[in-house]
TrEMBL record:
Gene3D superfamilies linked: D-Amino Acid Oxidase, subunit A, domain 2, FAD/NAD(P)-binding domain
Family under the similarity heading: Belongs to the MSOX/MTOX family.
Organism: Tetracentron sinense
Molecular function GO labels: flavin adenine dinucleotide binding; sarcosine oxidase activity
UniProt entry keywords in alphabetical sequence: FAD, Flavoprotein, Oxidoreductase
Residues annotated as domain FAD dependent oxidoreductase: 9-370
Identification of the protein by name: sarcosine oxidasee (formaldehyde-forming)
Source organism superkingdom: Eukaryota
Length: 411
């Protein structure tokens, strides 16, 4: 096996948003970092590609909101460093029945975290959004200021560029097959399928939907991270209404705590189209996907028809894009040391369960802290520990279920 020569402080495996943010954070601290990616950089076969991801402060779990606030600040910091925009701000709007457990937890979390918010009845919602959202009389809306859209491919490219500018070495088409501890030299060997070997003092694994496969091969650990194939759907806005769904017209990012959980972003990437999707997907092998779109049945078309009073053509999405979730049983992330023979020298960050993109910058900061200092400040990591699955295979037990449990669709 060929040794590539260079030695690194940290080798990061996987160049989605998490790996790219981590590489940037490490390079920013003046250390030598190598970022390895199995496919082309900015490929469309993982989770961090495409045109839009929501950022929102409202979470049923109260421990995510502070992370979003820090991430939002770090998104802006990175934008000012690179000189272009990837994060487009707009308010965020949640809706559902007042007795819905997730929505109740979201409101409780706003109160606990002193997040400015307004609870609106169906009439106030209609006034707030000038008739663009129509809620059933027994539903409530939750209006918060911190929302927005992040452009994923552009954002990953931004962090890779920033990392490169600070001296990071970036290599794509390098599939990592082995991660081994070198007892003698006190470090880690990372070996690729084309026979190259790289040496690092430490290693980070941010392999997205391949996390389970890779960690099983390198350490025997079987993580409960299930890849799901999911579909991003764009719907046509009926003629004459296009301007109403733009950020400039105050249209928000939104989530409906109904069955199924439906989310969407303002019209931004494709003129005259709006993204409306369903949280979840069907289990898949990331290397053997069928690429068949997740079928969106009657509940979604009916929801679109009723919520937007016929302003959106609910006949079916006009274009779709495939993507993958990496679901944990409790919907919480996994950010921890790999342990075993690797001790604190290998950090893993995965299982972002369909809600990780917004957190990329803060996760990068946390992972860099863990791998370089052995600890992080300002974030409670107990919800993200690997050990929670040993105590209970389902992880952290939550009162609400509709958002957390991945909706496993039938193909
Ligand atoms: C349809 C959809 C909508 C979403 N909406 C939102 C949203 O609105 N808001 C939000 O915050 N989040 C959202 N998410 C979730 C978010 O996109 C993901 O949580 C995030 O992109 C995960 O990033 P990652 O870096 O962990 O994984 P990935 O982007 O998949 O990156 C992992 C990388 O590791 C590489 N890799 C794997 N194995 C190896 C190996 N052996 N060697 C080398 N490289 C390897 C892969 O090729 C890949 O490039 C959404 C996801 C989807 C699919």
């Amino acid at each position: 096996m060929e040794y590539s020569g260079d030695k690194f402080d940290v080798i990061v495996v996987g160049a989605g948003i998490m790996g790219s943010c981590t590489a940037y954070q490490i390079a920013k601290r003046g250390l030598k970092v190598l970022l390895l990616e199995q496919f082309d950089f900015l490929h469309h076969r993982g989770s961090s590609h495409g045109e839009s991801r929501t950022i929102r402060l409202t979470y049923p779990e109260d421990y995510y909101s502070d992370m979003v606030i820090e991430s939002s600040r770090l998104w802006e910091e990175a934008e000012s460093e690179i000189g272009y925009q990837v994060y487009f701000k707009t308010p965020h709007f949640d809706m559902g029945l007042p007795e819905n457990k997730s929505l109740r937890s979201v409101i409780a979390s706003c109160q606990l975290n002193s997040i400015p918010h307004r609870i609106l009845d169906h009439q106030q919602v209609s006034e707030q959004f000038a008739g663009r959202f129509k809620l059933p009389e027994n539903w409530v809306g939750l209006y918060t200021e911190l929302g927005g859209v992040i452009k994923p491919t552009k954002a990953v490219s931004m962090f890779q560029t920033l990392a490169f500018q600070r001296g990071a070495v970036l290599r794509d088409n390098k599939e990592v097959k082995e991660i081994k501890r070198d007892e003698e030299k006190a470090g880690i060997w990372v070996c690729t399928s084309n026979g190259e070997r790289f040496w690092g003092r430490k290693c980070v694994v941010t392999a997205g939907a391949w996390m389970q496969k890779l960690l099983k091969t390198v350490s025997g650990l079987v993580l409960p991270i299930q890849p799901l194939h999911t579909t991003v759907c764009y719907w046509k806005i009926n003629e004459g209404y296009e301007a109403e769904f733009l950020i400039d017209s105050g249209f928000p990012t939104f989530a409906s705590y109904s069955e199924p959980y439906i989310y969407g972003t303002p019209s931004l990437e494709f003129p005259g189209l709006i993204k409306i999707g369903v949280h979840g997907g069907y289990p898949c092998d990331p290397d053997r996907r069928t690429w068949v779109p997740t079928l969106l049945g009657n509940p979604v078309t009916q929801w679109i028809e009723e919520r937007f009073s016929g302003r959106i053509d609910s006949g079916g999405p006009v274009t779709t894009e495939s993507c993958m979730y990496s679901m944990t049983p409790d919907g919480d992330y996994v950010i921890d040391f790999l342990g075993r023979e690797f001790g604190k020298d290998v950090v893993i960050a995965g299982g972002f369960s369909g809600h990780g993109f917004k957190m990329g910058p803060v996760v990068g900061r946390i992972v860099a802290d863990l791998v370089l200092n052995g600890e992080t400040i300002g974030v409670e990591l107990k919800h993200f520990r690997l050990g929670r699955f040993e105590e209970d295979p389902k992880g952290t037990v939550k009162e609400f279920e509709d958002q957390v449990s991945c909706h496993l669709h039938n193909q």
